[in-house]
């Protein structure tokens, strides 16, 4: 959270301290357009993705009642890798964009067995 103001000011253009503060007040400047259109939405999206990963990890640990539960310990990573290898062996000419879906299905199968 402390790095958000620093990340908003980072970029390829060289600005002094006065310019960093004034472009926030002038909404018609190109710097404020970059900040409002690109940087702030990316920062908010990265915060939401991080929060989603934290919640999913906490739910996984609470569901199986193991504080050390992680995707590689419970078999999700191995299931995804196995499904990807089997898919590559069975369908060698398939487009590469299909492989992540096969890996997701392979990771989903051990995940469905967790509540049991």
Topology:
Layout: H1 4-9, H2 17-25, H3 30-63, H4 71-74, H5 76-90, H6 99-113
Structure in words:
With 116 residues, the chain is an all-alpha fold. It has helices at residues 4-9, 17-25, 30-63, 71-74, 76-90, 99-113. Helix 5 packs across helix 6 (99-113). The longest helix has 34 residues, at 30-63. 4% of the residues are buried. InterPro entries: ABC_BtuC-like (IPR037294), ABC_transptr_permease_BtuC (IPR000522). Pfam families: FecCD. The chain crosses the membrane at residues 44-61, 73-91. One of its GO terms (molecular function) is transmembrane transporter activity.
Give descriptors for this structure:
116 residues; mainly alpha; 2 domains; 6 helices
Number of strands: 0
Q: Residue share in helices?
A: over 70%
Q: Report the major sheet.
A: none
Number of domains: 2
Oligomer: single chain
Q: Provide a count of the helices.
A: 6
Assign the structural class, choosing from mainly alpha, mainly beta, alpha/beta, alpha+beta, or little secondary structure: mainly alpha
The poorly predicted ranges are none
Distance between the ends = 38 Å
Strand content: under 5%
Residue-averaged pLDDT: 79
Order of helices and strands: HHHHHH
Concise synopsis of the structure shown:
By secondary structure, the chain is mostly helical. The chain has helices at 4-9, 17-25, 30-63, 71-74, 76-90, 99-113. The chain is elongated.
